[in-house]
Write a structure and sequence with these properties.
Elements (H helix, E strand, L loop, with lengths): L1 H4 L8 H28 L16
Length: about 55
């Protein structure tokens, strides 16, 4: 969106802004997954990754 609003005179800045925009988007996505896993897991840090054993029959 920022790139579309810029003037053509600053075309050399567009690839730099696109990379920064991509890095920020990835960071926001990773943070959202991290927060979501921690909210689902409660206070424990490892419950999202622990495989629970099968119940014995």
């Amino acid at each position: 969106m920022v790139v579309a609003a810029m003037s053509p005179d600053n075309a050399w800045q567009q690839p730099i802004l696109r990379v920064v925009d991509t890095v920020v988007g990835v960071a926001v996505g990773v943070a959202a997954v991290w927060i979501g896993r921690h909210l689902r897991a409660g206070d424990s840090r490892h419950t999202a990754f622990v495989r629970h054993p099968e119940p014995r029959t």
